[in-house]
Structures are given as structure tokens and as C-alpha cells.
Fold this protein.
Amino acid sequence: MEFRQIPASLRRLCLLSLPALVTSFGTVNEPNILGQHNEHEMVTRLAFQCPGPKSDGTCFERRSLDQLAGYHLDFMGFPIVGGGFNGAVGAPDTLDPVPEGPVAHCDDADFVAIPGYPQNRTAATAALQRCVDHLRVRFRQAWVSAEELLSPEGAIRPDMVELSNPFGGDCVFAFPSLQNPQSGRAKCNVIEGFGRALHGVQDFYAHSNWADKEDPNQPISDVNPPGLARTDRAPFVVDLGATGPIPEDQIPYNLSTGCFVINDKTPGEGDCAGRVTHHTLTKDHGIINLDGSFGSVGPDTPRSEAVPENFHLAVEAAVAASRDLWTNFRAELRKRYGRVHSDMMICSLVRDDPANNCHNHALAIALDKSIASMDRRADEVGLAIAQALTGRLQFDGADKVTVVEFDESTEVNAPWTGPPVSKHQVDQIHVPDSQPNIGGGLALGIDEVINAFPDSYTDKGAVVMLTAGFVHHTWAGDTLLQLQRARAKGIRVHYGCINMPPVTETELVLEKKWQECSPGDGVIPAVLKTGGTFSFINQRHNTKSASHFATLILDHGLTGVDDAGEGETTRLSPGIVPASMLGASHPTRRFSYLAHQGESVNFIVTDRFPDAQGTGGCYTWTLTTNTTQEVISTRTLCSDTEQGTFSLPFTAATPMELVLTAEYEGEAEGSSEEQKGDVIFTVELETDVNTDVAEEDIMEGDNIGATGAHVPGFRSRTASTDGSVPASTSRTGEPTGRGHYELR
Ligand SMILES: *[C@@H]1O[C@H](CO)[C@@H](O)[C@H](O)[C@H]1NC(C)=O
Ligand SMILES: *[C@@H]1O[C@H](CO)[C@@H](O)[C@H](O)[C@H]1NC(C)=O
Ligand SMILES: *[C@@H]1O[C@H](CO)[C@@H](O)[C@H](O)[C@H]1NC(C)=O
């Protein structure tokens, strides 16, 4: 901080205690005098806001995002100037007691290739280098501070991540002598370093010509430097773990930022005379909405007034670059601290209650190994799902995963040995009437979760049940009993009911497409009421179904503390048919699908009332897309008055997001007393597109998860409760110890 170099006029500003200077994307919400609409906050929120209250591992939950992005208060729509908190991203503009200098905003790297320009390319590049070096120092501050988040054993230190007090509990990003007693929090220090670096990254796009366009009606000059109109991101402002000079080939010859003096004008004055000024290039001001749309641009930003698109280009680049920086930061943590500790650090940064939400989850996967299941190869699907799920969880010593098996016998303790018999043998044994003991499998799974953390399993435990169970309708008593028990104990049950292809001659002759898995009367609502998910899984898609099913569970929230929250949208994928529940207390459900250009899809909605799942009711379906404001199709259905199933076909002319919304309309007319309650339905997606393509998209998402703590609260390790050293997940995994096997 170079207080002595700050001009006298600026020192007066400090005395006036204005919250910020007008030197960057705005930090405060003061449209009238400063022309700022807390643009840094909005860019940061656009980059990191979560769709619901819970983090998916990369987005920031509410209080944590407030620390990074800041928040601003208004009174009946009028901003309270300086009300609120600038957050870490606003810290470089905050007077504490002085803002950070030009290096924090990437100013003064101005250059235009015209004869006699006052600063040559070399000097402009040197100014850019000073900015990047400054941001690298802030980036380093962030990852160095992260070490303090955890104990040496890798457990979160609760005092280091405490943010629970909304009044006075905010981080203080200032000189240490001005910080409050809670300022020693490592989480605040990490967020400060990251946020201050983020500020410069965002400013680079607001203050430079990297992404913008020049005024086509004026000649190129110091008041109209060329716009580079680049759609890629500048690598040197996000590769902040790098050292040494920025590689020359990364700096376009015509790159320019603006020269900044307090009297910031076009054309420049004082030290900035004859130069491109901050004022000339700035795209700092305009209205940004949290849905990514824009309001008016400006004021007092000539570059955006000449080409209004310039503000949008700068904001979009800044949002994308912010996410890139976060990706790089996570990679840096992983490089410095290893996967296990870095995943825990990331969880502790993005979640508001990390001490509770990042630790001690327990997952039991219950696999149906009955003859009926093996005969139809449903056990392979179950195994693939177990592997897809555990492959997506991060492991550390603080969570536990066990696999339990069950079959038609009562030997639910059978250890997981991978495929117990060869296919050849399976084909010879055909006992179609044997029933898996699903209630027994659930009971064992619940026991395992409780035993894993006897003092703290509530809301942090889940049982994933995978079965092809043909349950005779009236045989579900044990299952229902266990589902009630899970619900009472705060353990979620996710139920994958595996539909099987026809195998018997009769089925083939009848051309039956599927033998739908039959969970038993009332099982679907009982599963959903544990907070978990229920899906029919078509075995046809096999490993794809496994990956999609894992995605569905993790998106929804494996355990109570991972809950996606109200407003959740279920992503549909071929092969997975999720069940959902509508009622007076949860009147809306949303499903979405990203359709490719030319893709024909069909949504098949089936009311499960005739299957003795749920009760009678009426609801309206609406299909919309993100490309038009109009409703594509709408339809009202009443459980017990219609056939119980209908389709909504649609062909996407362009790539688009299709959203199917169900709204509860009340009980069906003439419902009897026992028919009042929740409606249960399933939504199946059919597509004519080769699902291999769709699969690639999904896998990309998976990879992001793999590098970025996709499942923050849940890092898992297969732990045997007897402390034995577990083996591997593969089907050839050797048994170790008394019944539990490592999944890695
Ligand atoms: C660029 O400007 C700097 C400082 O103004 C000067 O020292 C340097 O010699 C100049 N370089 C060239 C190639 O003209
Ligand atoms: C730099 O900008 C000038 C003026 O717009 C243009 O003539 C020149 O080709 C550009 N140079 C490079 C290397 O892009
Ligand atoms: C709609 O969503 C698709 C897929 O995400 C996207 O490619 C497209 O640009 C979006 N269109 C609009 C108008 O938002």
C-alpha cells in the first residue's frame, strides 16, 4: 500500500469516507453519484451463485458468497449508499484506509500502434506484468492461507470457518489492525486473497480492449483504440499460479488497458495526456441481473455508449474468467495439498456450515444379489451404479461407504464378493419366483449407516437400494417398515428399481419391451418421504444408466445436508425414469433436458395411482423452452379420471433447454378420504439421438466434478466397521475382513 504516492485529492476522499473509488467495475451500489451498480458483486454472483441453497461443490452457498461477492442493501428499491458489505472482490476498491493502486485493477498498460504514442509496447507490457504479478501474490495468499482451514489430520477447524453470525460476523478485509476479533479466520483469509485476485481478473476485461470493439465510425486513435473482440480468455490473468514473465505470444500487440489518474477523462489529462485513459476504455458500469440479462449500460462510459454490446462482452468474459480462476485455484490447492485435503478445503470454502456438512457422511449401497436379479443381469447394473456413485465421491477419513448384499435368503450379511458365480452357472439356475429380501437389505444398510457414526448419522446418512425386485404387491410390509425407520432416523433412501429385458419365451412372444420392476404397494411415496429419490432404471443403457442415476442422486442431494432445496430441477436422461411427488405442501416440480439441434424427444408422464403408489389428484403439465417465452404445450391430468399416462413429443429446431413443469391443482373430484395426499408420477424421456453423444456431455460434467469436489459434503471412503484394510472396487475385488470392501 503506497499511501505516500496517493495524491492529496484522494486523501481527501478518504477523509470523506466514501466507500469506494470509481476505478473499476463498480463496487458500491450508488447509481446517482458514482454511477456504480455493484458490478463486481453481480459478476461474482453470476459466476458462483448456487441454483438452490446447497452447493454442488463449486458454487458458493449464501453466506460464503456474501463474503466473496459482498452484498448491498436497499430501502424499498432505493440503494442505501454504502449500506452492506463490499466483500473480498470489492476489497481493492475499499478505503481501508486507501484502495489498492493501479496494479490491482490492471490500469496503465495502455498502448496504441500510432506514431508518437507516449508509451511503447514494452512499457505497456511491463505495466501489465506488474498487475499480473500483484494478482499472483493475492492468489498465493489464498492458497497459503488455506492450510489453516484444516487440522494436520485433515479435519475442518470449526473456528477457522465460522460465519454463522449474520450480524457482525462478516469477514473483515483490511489492515490487520482494523480487523475484528474474528478476523483470524482462515476462510476469510482465503476468500480475501482469492477475491482480491478475482477483482483484477474481472477488471482486466472491463479495463482493456481484449473483448471489446472500437467505435467503427471514428478513426483509430488514443480516444478510440482498436478493440480486439476476442472471445477467448487471456491465459495470463487466470494462470495465477505461474511465475516469471508472461509468455510474449500471449500478449496481443494491440492490447491496451487505460491510463488512470484521479481526473479520469477522455481525452486524457496530466500524466495520461495523449494516452488511452481508463475513462476511454472503461466498461465498468451498467445494470447486470442475476439471471445473466442486462439493463441499461453506463453512465459515463463512452466505449459502451458507442458500442453497447461492449459492456455485455466485458461482463460475460469477466464471469467466464472468474470461473476459470476458481477452477485454477482448486487445481492449485490439489497440487499443494493433495486430493483429500484440497477437497475438504474446497468444501469448507463453498459451504456455509462446513464443520457439519463436509464431514462424517455414511453411505450404504445395498445390492440385490438374488438369483432373479442375476438371471436378468440386473446385478450388473447395480454394480455399475455402485461404481459410478463411489467413483464420483471424494474419499477421506471422515466419511464411510459400505456395500451390503442381499438375496432371497435371509443372509443379508453376505459379504460383497463381486459376481458370486460365473454367467455360465447363472444361466443354468433359473428360479424366477424367488424373491429378494429388500426389507432385509434395507435394514442392513440402515444398520451400517447408524453404526458408522452412532452419534451423528442424522441427515448425513443414505442407503442406495439397487434391486430388480419383483415384489408381489402385498409383500412390501418389511420394506415399508424399514423406510419408515430410515425416515425417522434422518437417513435418505435412494431406490433404483431396475427394469429388466424380456427373457422368457412367453415374454418374447408377447413382445414385451420391459418387465417393469415392481417395488410393492406404497413403496415409492415412502422412499420419497425419506428425502431420497426413486427411479426406474432401464437396463438397456447399462453403464450410461449407471452414470445418469449417480448424477440424479448427487444433484438431488445424497443426504439431508446435501439437499438441493426448493426449486430443484431434475435433469432427465434416457434410461432413468424418476418418480416424483406432488401435493399441497410441495405443489411444483420441474424437469429439464438439454436437447440437441434436430433432436426429437418424447416426455412420457405416468401417474402411478393405478400401481397403488400415491393418491388421486389433478395437476397441470407445462412444457417450455429457454428460446421462446411461449408455452409449447400444456395439459391437465387427474389421476383417477384418466388413463394415467400421456406423452409430450417435441422436436428441437435449435439447441435448447426444455423444461417440464408440473403444478398441483388439488384433489381429484370425488376423491375418497384415503385418496387424499400425495400424487406420485414418473417422467420418462425418450430421444431419437444416439445417447452415446449425450453420454459424452454427461461425462464432461463428471470430469469437472472429479477435479473440483463435485460432491463437497461427501467425500467417502469405504470403511469396514471392523477396521480391516479394504481392497478395490473392481468386480475382482478380494474380500478383506468380515464383510465390507473398499470402493475406490
Ligand atoms: C520503451 O520505453 C521505455 C521507457 O519509456 C524505454 O526505456 C525503452 O527503451 C523503450 N523501448 C523501445 C523498444 O523503444
Ligand atoms: C494493430 O492495430 C492497427 C490499427 O488498428 C492495425 O493496423 C494492425 O494491423 C494491428 N496489429 C496487429 C499485430 O494486430
Ligand atoms: C438455450 O439453452 C441452450 C442449451 O443450454 C443454449 O445453447 C442456448 O443458447 C439457450 N438459448 C437462449 C435463448 O438462452
Residues 359-707 form one domain.
